[in-house]
Amino acid sequence: MSPDLVMLLVFVGMMLMGVPVAFALGLGGAAGILVGLSPDMLATLGTNTYNSIAKYPLIAIPLFILTGLIFERAGVAASLVRFAQSLIGPRHGGLALVAVIVCLIMGGMSGSGPADAAAVAMVMLPSMTKAGYPKPFSASLIAASASTAILIPPSIALILYSVVMPGVDLRALFAAGLFPGILAGLSLLIPAWWMAKRHGWEHPDSGERPPIKESFIQAIPALFAPVLILGGLRSGLFTPTEAAVVAVTYGFLIGVFVYKQLNFNAIGALMTDAARISGVVMIIISLAGIFAWAGTTLGTFNSLANALLSLSDNSWVLLLLIMLLVLIAGMFLDAVSIYLIITPILIPLVHHFGWNPVWFGILLAMNIAIGQFTPPVAVNLMVTTKVAEIGLERTFLWALLFMVTMFVSLLLVMLIPGIALWLPDKLGFVVGPW
């Protein structure tokens, strides 16, 4: 049996046995090294795990994870919801529109879908239920809307992609994700509004409209967060990694002194949760380094890329097949694992067809975003259904509806690369060949 096959079979076998993906990657890579190289080469395991995480851009990941938790618990979501309600007012589908808009804004602060899903669900679900929205619909909509955090800058997933894909400017990725993220939000907003109007959810005379001026003043600190982060990146005032530090500092300041939702005990719990989540992510990245090194050294990734090329020499056919493959992977794996497993296989194809790496990264992110609310493993949906206190199986049909509409937005970005590439090009970032 070839070393390539041994490595892949061990990895898949470990996954089927329920072994955590990080250890499945590490054991698969170690098996490939043992069979295809030499037992002496197992001495590289320590070096590979260290080299995988000893990269400056990765410092931003635990910081943005902490940022997401801060904004989730600092009362930011509540102020944004109140402001959005003051703008939209009571109407059929009004609260659904508020949920989507707030998720988009929250995505510009944390870059974490589950954090946004938790924050918005805690605030919006009681109001939506009271207005007549079914809980499965509300939970599915918020989970799908929160998935746009993977696209709206800053994005933890795009940070990881910039590390895995050589030569990609992270600032260009951040800028490229903005319009596709808004497009994905619109693809959810339109059917949500139509369904609300069709079923008569949220009567126009129900509820009160918060005063615009008062709610705007309360929301200013929250609304300023994306401006601070993106403005600093665009002006060159700080790097993406430094932007994460700024975001954490700003979040603490408004959480403690403005919204006054964070105290000493809350900050301690935040730090503990952020450390735990960051530890899980870094373990995945470090052990995936073994898998990546083994796959590169053994030529496994090139072999898999050639196998994909043998299916079709038409770039559009192959691109669609890749999108379907990533969509299926997103139903079972988290974003970090998908990038670490699939991207090394796809790099030869990106070079072969001359695909723009920034545009391709946004396509992957949009696809993974869909996976975050698509069962059976739907991290965002797990969060919102827990808040709603309903079973995950009750959301399947609604999740399918939003999956289809967001996939349409993915196809638009696939067919019109300028949706993603226009903004980074205008801002002067390096986006590569069109």
3D structure, described in words:
The protein has 20 helices and no strands. It is mainly α. The chain has one domain (57-277, 299-427). It starts with a helix and ends in an 8-residue tail after the last helix. GO terms for molecular function: transmembrane transporter activity. Pfam families: DctM (PF06808). InterPro entries: DctM (IPR010656), TRAP_DctM (IPR004681).
SSE blueprint and pairings:
Elements: H1 3-16, H2 21-36, H3 44-53, H4 60-73, H5 76-88, H6 94-110, H7 113-130, H8 135-146, H9 156-164, H10 170-199, H11 212-235, H12 240-258, H13 264-298, H14 300-311, H15 315-330, H16 335-353, H17 357-371, H18 379-388, H19 396-415, H20 418-426
Helix pairs in contact: 1-2, 2-13, 3-13, 4-7, 4-12, 4-13, 5-6, 5-7, 5-11, 6-7, 6-8, 6-10, 6-11, 7-8, 7-18, 8-18, 8-19, 9-16, 10-17, 10-19, 10-20, 11-12, 13-16, 14-16, 15-16, 15-17, 16-17, 17-19
Highlighted features:
434 residues; 76% helix; globular
Number of structural units classed as domains:
1
Distance between the termini: 42 Å
* SSE series: HHHHHHHHHHHHHHHHHHHH
Percent helix range = over 70%
Low-confidence stretches: none
Structural class: mainly alpha
Radius of gyration: 22 Å
> Tally of extended strands?
0
Mean pLDDT, all residues: 85
Q: What is the global morphology? A: globular
Keywords: Cell inner membrane, Cell membrane, Membrane, Transmembrane, Transmembrane helix, Transport
Family: Belongs to the TRAP transporter large permease family.
GO molecular function, one term: transmembrane transporter activity
Function: Part of the tripartite ATP-independent periplasmic (TRAP) transport system.
